[in-house]
Amino acid sequence: MPPRGYAQPPPNYGRQGYSAPTVASVAVADRDPIESRALVALGYPLWPLALISLFDRKQSPGLRRQAYQAIGFNLGIAALWGVLWFMGNVPFPTLAGSSDVMEALLIPFFLVASVFYGLRVWQGDNNVRVPILADWIDERLPAKP
Fold first, then answer.
1. Cα angle at 66 between 65 and 70, to 5 degrees?
2. How far apart are CA 108 and CA 116, in angstroms?
3. pLDDT tens-digit series, residues 4-16
4. If we measure between CA atoms, which residue out of 77, 75, 79, 71 comes closest to residue 44?
5. Taking the model in full, what pTM does it have?
6. Considering the chain, what percentage of its residues have pLDDT values greater than 70?
């Protein structure tokens, strides 16, 4: 018996015909080239890289959807920034003050969210979904062939 805290060997270990467990399917991360995944992952914090990744012909439909999602994420953050900036220039002091606070909170939110989504894509998760944007993109992109 192994010392406490160590894993027990499988029950059939040592018997004739026993083989170690194998992975039956290939992971999504193994099918997509690391360069394509890295380019799309960096597209979340840096939108021009997501735009460049759309020109990759060897890219899977999942990564293409992620590239569109990265561009949409950046456009959404920029639009929200523009709305908050406009609200900050309105002559009402309470509206301007609250929009300044929201603008200050938008920067850390963008940094944390873009790194989070980018890391998940880089690790091979092609099912990353930005809450509102993912449904909108799924409606407009053609289904997988």
1. 120
2. 12
3. 655 665 565 555 6
4. 71
5. 0.70
6. 75
